[in-house]
Amino acid sequence: MRIGLTGLGRIGAFHADTLLGLPAVDTLVVTDARPETARAVAERLRAEHPGSEVQVVDTPEELVAAGLDGLVVATATAGHAEWIRRGLTAGIPTFCEKPVAGTLEETIELAGLEADSSTPVHVGHQRRFDAGFRRAREAVASGEFGFVHTIRANTHDQDPPPAEFIATSGGIFRDCGVHDFDAIRFVTGREVVSVYATGSNKGADYFSEAGDVDTGAAVLTLDDDTLVLMSTTRYNGGGHDVRMEVMGEKGTVAVGLDHSLAMTSAEPGTDFPRGPQKWSFMERFLPAYQAELTAFFDVAAGRAESPCTIADALEAFRTAEACELSRAEGRAVTLSEIKGL
Q1: What is the pLDDT along the chain (341 residues), one digit of tens a residue?
Q2: Pairing of strands 227-233, 148-156
Q3: pTM over 0.70
């Protein structure tokens, strides 16, 4: 397949390596808003993936006209919506990192465009392809643990991102917690009906200066009365920690509970977890990213429907919006208050 990739920052360069490691990719055509970055990354890719065909173009128009079988969007968030529009207009199946847009209104607009188009869009919520989350989904769907009453979900980053990122991130629930919100829908097959969220700052001043928090927590109620306890933080120096516990009438299943767990047991004589820890989301979810992009090739080839549409991403975004509103106003917020399709 001939795949286009736009955006060659941290996640874009990571995707480039992943794409060239997949046998379905014959040619990778790359571009970036900074042409010198595109050329430098292309040179590295050719050196590290000998025999791979890596081409560079300078403009969006050249990339869209490059005879692509699929387009991967990994630009900064501000560029996502326009690139999705380009893909839909040109009829190119498009994979886009979350979020699809920086605002709820634009996300709703893009979901409408997607609904009116025969061209598929696959949004990059990679936890849908993680073996643990998929096992939890199967357990819920089969009724293995009876009725589900409580879920704990967390995303704890090892180190905070830089101040310039936080200033444009949209807040901890939209940027970080949105992964949990999508995973909750994916695992349970249920919708969020209400949230109560709060947050605090004990770290760098730039979180407060941006109107954000470095640690957030929320209680979510699903449409079958399942309760979800969710937490997220930018400070977890022991490692990158993403987990979910699904508690049911007849048992509990835990995602992320292995020897890489980024914590220390206080119990004497316990050697769990033994490590080593994971230190970034890219390390934690590398197999999921590979499976996700492989699935996108099936979408692009017409062999499968999108496993995460813009409409799916919109629902996670609406939950994040509700959490930010709840945090700001100090009250419970129902999802009916948040505009949708």
Answers
A1: 999 999 999 899 999 999 999 999 999 999 999 999 999 999 999 999 999 999 999 999 999 999 999 999 999 888 999 999 999 999 999 999 999 999 999 999 999 999 999 999 999 999 999 999 999 999 999 999 999 999 999 999 999 999 999 998 999 999 999 999 999 999 999 999 999 999 999 999 999 999 999 999 999 999 999 999 999 999 999 999 999 999 999 999 999 999 999 999 999 999 999 999 999 999 999 999 999 999 999 999 999 999 999 999 999 999 999 999 999 999 999 999 999 98
A2: parallel
A3: yes
Tokens of 141: 């769907």
Superfamily of domain 128-279+316-337: Dihydrodipicolinate Reductase; domain 2 (3.30.360.10)
Judge whether 107 and 338 are in contact, CB under 8 Å. Answer: no
Q: What are phi and psi of 124, to 5 degrees?
A: -80, 70
- State the sign of the Cα–Cα–Cα–Cα dihedral 331, 312, 189, 242: negative
Q: Rounded to whole angstroms, how far apart are CA atoms 298 and 303?
A: 5
Q: In the 3-class helix/strand/coil scheme, how is 247-302 assigned residue by residue?
A: EECCEEEEECCCCCCCCCCCCCCCCCCCCCCCCCHHHHCHHHHHHHHHHHHHHHCC
Asked if 154 and 180 count as a contact pair (C-beta separation under 8 A), the reply is yes
Whole-angstrom Cα distance, residue 241 to residue 31? 32
User: What CATH number does domain 2-126+290-309 carry, 3.40.50.720, 3.40.50.300, 3.40.190.10, 3.30.497.10?
Assistant: 3.40.50.720
Residue 41: which H helix or E strand, with range?
helix 35-48
